[in-house]
Amino acid sequence: MEKLIYIIASTFLISLASLIGVFTLSIKEKTLSKFLLFLISLSAGALMGGAFLHLLPEASEKLNNGNMYPIVLFSFVLFFLIEKLLHWRHCHKKNCQVHTFGYMNLFGDAVHNFIDGLVIASTFIIDVKLGIITSFVIALHEIPQEIGDFGVLLYSEFSRKKALLANFLVALTAVFGGIFGYFLSFQIENITSYLLPFAAGGFIYIAASDLMPEIRKEASLKKSMLSFGVFLLGLVIMYVVKFIGHE
Prior knowledge:
The chain crosses the membrane at residues 6-23, 35-56, 68-86, 164-185, 191-212, 224-244. The protein has helices at 2-15, 29-62, 65-91, 101-126, 128-155, 160-171, 173-183, 188-216, 221-245. By secondary structure, the protein is mostly helical. It has one domain. It is globular and about 55 Å long. The two termini are 29 Å apart.
């Protein structure tokens, strides 16, 4: 029971990282809009880095490639289908005003956070110190990702308060993942093995199909290069977090 308390406390504290968007509520909308493109770029880089530097390498250690890649492809196709359904649901009338990738990002983030909860639970079950270290490393990559996710929701024309609430509620899936992992600890490795490539496929789809095309729309060469630099920064952050995690 003591380990369950550690798991719930750690995942809840990490979920609070989603509230970092509250600091943007005091910024004027005109000023904030200037930074949205860079937040989109940061999120795209973090998603791609998370998929290729964290999720897929971890999945390859647990599954053979013959099983891993079909799951990634299935996830990619499923996310495409879900986006199509969301697009029809929200945009079957003319003059659709809401970008569906905001909802897609929430769905993908929920899967990612749930997996984070599973990973945290599995490490706490092995050793409390290892669980604390793992929680700290996960928190490091959650902060930049949550900033980017908040920007994605604003770019998708969510109101700032709605974006903050949605981001926080989705972040709480880490808590459910932790609790689920604790009570099914004897199966946690198998569960995580299949969820990792599934989440990776979703991350790749969101970044490559939805976010990066938005970045490409920028006509200014200067802003395009800056946004590309921020995209690379997202990748670098994910790489640094991976390096720290192996220390």
